[in-house]
Amino acid sequence: MTGPPVESPATSAGRQPVWSAEGSGWRDRRMVPVAIVVWVSCLSTHALFEAVMDHYARPGPSHDAEVRPPWVPIAPVVTSATGVLGVLGVLGALGVVSFMGVSSARRRLRGAANADGVRHPSRSVRHPRPRSWRPLWCGTVMTALGVLGTAALIGGLATLGADVVRWHDPAAAAARQGAVTVVVTVRVRSPAVASMRRTSDCQAEVVVRAMDVRGVVRSSGATALLFATGSDCGVLRRGSGIEARGTLERARFGRQPLWFTVIGGGIGLREGPTWLDSANNRMHDAFFAVTGRLSDQGRVLVPGLTMGLLGQDHVGDGTGGDASRGEAPPVDATYARLLEERFRRSGIMHLMAVSGGHFSVLGVLVRRTGSTLHLPRNVVAPLQIIAYLLLAGAMYPSDSLLRAVVMGALVSWAWLMGRPAQAVSALSWTVVAVLILDPGMSRSLGFALSCSAVLGIALYARPMARMLGARMPGALAEVLSMTVCAQAFTLPIQLLMEPEIPLLSVPANLLVAPFVDIATLAGLLGMVLAPCAPALAYPPIWVSSVMTAVMERCAVWLSDGSMATMPWAEGVRGALAMAVIEIAVVIVLVLWRRRLRRRDAAGHGRWAPHGWQALRRWLGETRSMLDGT
After folding, report:
1. Domain limits at 192?
2. What is the reported pTM?
3. Are residues 142 and 21 in the same domain?
4. What is the mean pLDDT of each run of 10 residues along the chain (629 residues)?
5. Quick check: is 146 in a domain?
């Protein structure tokens, strides 16, 4: 009988084992440049399309919009511009990809050239240069060029197609002529919430199915924001089909391109919601009925932390409360605005948006249940995906929720296929898939915030936690590293929304971190129990309100005073300035760390004891000093 073959030192040094960190793929970042190029291509195509179409659609003395249709010269212009921007994006990301790939390959080839198999930490040791690195470099460049160019072209063409369809939609064409009174058939795709306009009581996102203009009915697929008042708000149930008469116009601000304002009493129900939407609507009504027994703090924050909808934004009977069912009066609007502002100034407003935390908790629960019941992986993984979809349907729809559910489904599918969890790769594929299917998401700040926070945590939270773990307890190092990485990656995008820097966001997140999971779990449990057992749902909802009360105290304490926030430059200029500053700080830290490593390799190493070891040594030295005196 022969034993397993023994590898030589050169062979073992030149090839990573399959179970190592580099071989397992948990640090696979190859799709990050692809996602960046697709995002840049979508944004550039959107900007070019709108600029060119607005120019040709603007009537002038030399040409009229009716005489010279704007869509005649647009397709070749935008397509050519998309190709140029795609090439520029390729060239921008190509340097990063080539550098990463070539550096990694050259390190492996140099390791293979070392016959002794010893890794020398000092850079003073000269390794023989392998002769095969130039063909490898050329192959890496050509592969990167082809992949990134294809990604840019796909993103640009997908965006161009979506923009052309949206431009020629009958609803959009009618709105470009000015405010027009029409009769539309729409499907409601979000719960009704408090209106951002003073002239309306509620608003809801809808998809226009048909439009009747002066007796001519035309089909449509445009998305719009519908505004209603009074009893009409009670008809706006998620998933229902309604017919309404009102004013259609272009949106003055916001992500939705169209606004539709219902003329009083002009809503009629044509089709009820599906059984799943009906179940979610009943669950939301029961949940808000139970939270109505809490104080104003709990009524605002518990729904926000549980399902992503602040309590003051919930619309029951069209007046902001549920008085028709004998419940508590509406939340004090002044207190709700002040509380929301305090959360924003303290840097913890992101807790009121459903993102990956809910899905992480649910995924762990499903896996542990499957492990307890000894279910195979090919059964648990589909159940996990189904659970994610059901949870997404029960939450208030948002762009961060879309990112979380798609990424969670991709991770579960990879686990079903026997692949290890790769957060960076899953995030990159999520971005590519979402932007190609819905190019309009490239302009969503909520989607960008969610993706950037996850990218920062996936890339640098673990190394930072290891570095901080030598100076503080492991649990505190984990929370601090996740907070700092997420804040660093999202801060430039936050400045686009609000030109202020929350200076106390890191300590605020550290203070509320122990209470977030408890409040979320208790709120979800109460929401599930509310439709069938309101009495049993109240205790967990009350526990959640106790946890949110701690968050409120932290927000009040940290947001008071002029030092809570620092003004910053507005717009893209301020965001770019912050990005440059963060990159400069990272470069300084990397250079400083490399200098310390070179000093350690030269024999002047530093001894850094663990935090508890340092404390024990200090206590021993203090005791010896006191005994000697």
Report:
1. 170-273
2. 0.80
3. yes
4. 41 40 58 91 88 67 43 50 53 52 52 49 48 58 77 89 90 88 92 89 93 86 91 88 92 89 82 90 93 92 92 69 55 89 89 85 90 90 93 91 93 87 90 94 92 91 85 84 91 90 89 91 93 93 95 90 83 89 87 77 56 67 71
5. yes
